[in-house]
UniProtKB/TrEMBL annotation:
Residues 4-145 form the MPN domain. This is MPN domain-containing protein. InterPro entries: EMC8/9, MPN. Belongs to the EMC8/EMC9 family.
């Protein structure tokens, strides 16, 4: 199976979505860098650069989901991105498997169009320990089903992902996250969550500056 890595914003939005609605199941889609994608290839490496929160109420392949996926695909194409997977968190704290996740039809539809699709399951138990370990489990689509990758091996593009997400949670940024349920209730809301992306970029820039200052101390 190809390697899968996540950018900070991609992981952060998954966790913020689950944290905003701890009493609900939530779901969303994963966006990969299209410039690194080989059309039709299976088991290729993926750089998941962003995620789009879908629903905390309507988890099925409904007209609303079709509208959401169409809008997301249109915006993604302008940014050289492609819908490359699906994420979900179960309502029940103890349910942390693909089979228990909502929106299976959405995930299957994505896999039909993108053979190297990824299914990310939020590990509710690890959500309580996010400072120490990633709170997700990665699955790749192969042989007609979702197969778990190494449960303890989640690759991030930045070494500060867990630290950044912890900071966001402490600041209560999850309250500002907008999913498509929120957007459909109020069309003025930004389902791309650009404000959160800008905040993450600012935090990442600060971490980079700190790293450079630390390096100077040891020269």
């Amino acid at each position: 199976m190809g390697e899968v890595s996540l950018e900070t914003a991609a992981y952060a939005k998954i966790i913020l979505h689950a944290a905003k609605y701890p009493h609900c199941a939530v779901n969303g889609v994963l966006l990969a860098d299209a410039t690194k994608i080989r059309d039709g290839a299976k088991n290729q490496d993926l750089d998941i650069v962003d995620t789009v929160p879908l629903f905390h109420h309507s988890h099925y392949l409904s007209p609303m989901a079709e509208i959401a996926l169409t809008q997301i695909e249109t915006v993604a194409q302008t940014d050289n991105r492609v819908i490359a997977g699906y994420y979900a968190a179960c309502e029940n704290f103890k349910d942390n498997t693909v089979e228990k996740c909502p929106g299976q039809k959405i995930a299957e539809k994505i896999a039909e169009h993108f053979p190297s699709a990824v299914f990310v399951v939020v590990d509710n138990k690890r959500m309580m320990q996010h400072l120490d370990t990633p709170a997700i489990k990665l699955h790749k689509y192969a042989d007609g089903r979702w197969k778990l990758k190494d449960a303890n091996r989640v690759m991030f593009q930045s070494p500060y992902v867990l630290e950044t997400v912890s900071h966001l949670l402490q600041r209560g940024v999850q309250k500002d996250l907008v999913d498509f349920d929120n957007y459909l209730d109020d069309l003025s809301q930004d389902w791309t969550n650009l404000g959160i992306e800008k905040l993450i970029a600012s935090i990442n820039a600060s971490n980079t500056i700190d790293c450079k200052e630390d390096d100077k101390l040891f020269r």
